[in-house]
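chain below, 267 aa
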Amino acid sequence: MFTTLRSLIHPGNGVILSVRGLKSDLHIKWVRPEKIACWDPKKSGDLSPMEPLDMTKPPLEYQESEELKTANEYVRKVFSCEFMGRRYATQLARQQLIDKVKSNNLDFTSCEVQIASMTANIRNLQEHYKLSPRDKNSRVALKEIIDKRKKRLKYLRTWDYKKFEWLLENLDLKYHPHPPYERVERKKSLRRLTSQWCDEVKSKKLAEYRNELDSKKEMFLKQKLETLEWVKKEEIECGVEPTITDADIESARKQLEEWKTLKSIQE
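prediction:
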């Protein structure tokens, strides 16, 4: 037989039962998680896409040109990113990200500037890969840049955590460290789902029991107050020194009043 039989011994009469393919009666269904590509923004940590490129602006090297500012519209159109190419507009977008994080005008090689430059390249390649999903060279380049940026972020996180958080906020990034490798297995996942389901059942039953106790709390406090008053009265009538003080009775009465007030507020 190719199927495995599991023998169970009954503790009472020693009867051997053969059970084939035991299944759990828990209503738990495991679904294999969807694989997310490493270049996807969900995994790379880019919370916002690349800003729309303004193709009417001149390239970076002509931004400070006074002659271009006073030139006619045809000259400005010839020297615009729309006429000269998309890569010049991408350079402008990269420079805008760098200007957000650089410490001074001569800051070209700091860790923050490198991360901002890589972020602009990553978002540009992500937009390109959406349009051309079969471009393998761009996909490989995108994976390499994401890995390099992750190394820079890890370095900055180790040595200057405040600047690391400030950089993530300004560039709208989320840091995803390399997770430990774990093989996706059905049995392991079912055990975790079963444990999670048991915790939910336990929490639900505890909440129901807590609500049941809360519904009886007012009656319990009334009985407590009446019992304390009766015990004190009986001890006085029997000529015994009372063990119940007025402070105990007042404390029980205060608890009852506070519970009534809280219950009225909740209702």
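The radius of gyration is 36 Å. The first helix runs from residue 41 to 44.
thats it, cya
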